Amino acid sequence: MFKRNAILRPLPIRAFLPIAALAIGVATASPSQAAGTVVNASLWDKGVETAMATDLGFPAAGKDMSKVTMGIALSAETVKAGEITFEVLNSSKDTIHEMIITRLRDLSRLFPYNSSESRVDEDKMPDILGEVSELDPNKTAALRLDLKPGTYLLFCNIPGHFTSGMWTIFTVK
């Protein structure tokens, strides 16, 4: 039989420590840890001393992509639909980059490219969903989007970067 005073005795404080630690961890979690999927994106290049390629824009059919001088590397190329946070790092030592995301409805469609500016004409692109603009070398930024199933293109639109191969395809299922 239980003794009455044993039941009414308060629990030691150490019994509550794991619960308190969990509560503090949840309350102080960064936004990217709190919900959704996180995709790390590294914006890279071979340095300003490397001559940029000029014919490696999207689509890439028949192009020698081993000649790219810049690119976007993702920690995951396919994720589930929903809230996705892109944590973007410009890993360049000396070049500003950006990351734009657009939905691809036709994988063979050419983008409206303005040759005189050496960049995609963003005003003529109906499906741009968001961007991390002009990110200085070794800086980070985040972009959170709610994405539906489909195929997306992530690209840099700093003059010359798109045609140097600075783009990648991203799939949401």
What does this structure look like?
With 173 residues, this protein is mainly beta. The protein is 12% helix and 38% strand. The protein contains 3 helices and 11 strands. It has helices at 4-8, 17-28, 31-34, and strands at residues 37-45, 70-74, 78-79, 82-90, 97-104, 113-114, 119-120, 128-135, 140-147, 150-155, 167-172. It has a 5-stranded mixed beta sheet, with no helix packed on it. It has a 4-stranded mixed beta sheet with strand order 2-1-4-9, with no helix packed on it. The protein has a two-stranded antiparallel ribbon with strand order 6-7. A hairpin with a 4-residue loop joins strand 6 and strand 7 (119-120). The radius of gyration is 23 Å and the shape is globular. 24% of the residues are buried.
Secondary structure layout:
Elements: H1 4-8, H2 17-28, H3 31-34, E1 37-45, E2 70-74, E3 78-79, E4 82-90, E5 97-104, E6 113-114, E7 119-120, E8 128-135, E9 140-147, E10 150-155, E11 167-172
Strand count = 11
DSSP helical segment count: 3
**C-alpha Rg, in Å?**
23 Å
Structural class, by secondary structure, is mainly beta
| Estimated share of beta-strand residues | 35-45%
Helix-strand pattern? HHHEEEEEEEEEEE
